[in-house]
Design goal:
Radius of gyration: 13 Å
Strand content: over 45%
Largest sheet: 7 strands, mixed
Number of helices: 0
Structural class: mainly beta
Mean pLDDT: 95
Oligomer: single chain
Length: about 120
């Protein structure tokens, strides 16, 4: 079992930066890929970025490419999401999720067994 706790959400201005963290517990953490999702009320949860178990492979949704960076530190059992050039449309609850394999295989929410409680990111214009 994997337990996930996100932190770092805040209110930032247009064009600002913010870093999110996801602390994980569980023996399988370093063997599975991790992902960040986001959701706004009334809309489906959407995949933002993912990183493979070893941290060498990454995936980014088109709407964050070039602005967000996902990384992980397996020694600290933590996944990070650095968000730059933030836009009002980035406003959402951000969730950390644990995948089911070492390699990135899916960004469909139903394929993730473990989720954090979320951290709110609000970008003001």
């Amino acid at each position: 079992e994997v337990q996930l706790v996100e932190s770092g959400g805040d209110l930032v201005q247009l064009g600002g930066s913010l870093g999110l963290s996801c602390a994980a517990s569980g023996s399988i953490y370093s063997r599975i890929y991790m992902a960040w999702f986001r959701q706004v009320p009334g809309k489906e949860r959407e995949g933002v970025a993912a990183v493979s178990g070893g941290g060498t492979d990454t995936y980014y949704a088109d709407f964050v490419k070039g602005r967000f960076t996902i990384s992980r530190d397996n020694a600290k059992n933590t996944v990070y999401l650095q968000m730059n050039s933030l836009k009002p449309e980035d406003t959402a609850m951000y969730f950390c999720a644990a995948g089911r394999s070492y390699a990135i295989t899916s960004m469909t929410p139903l394929d993730f067994n473990y989720w954090g409680q979320g951290t709110q990111v609000t970008v003001s214009s």
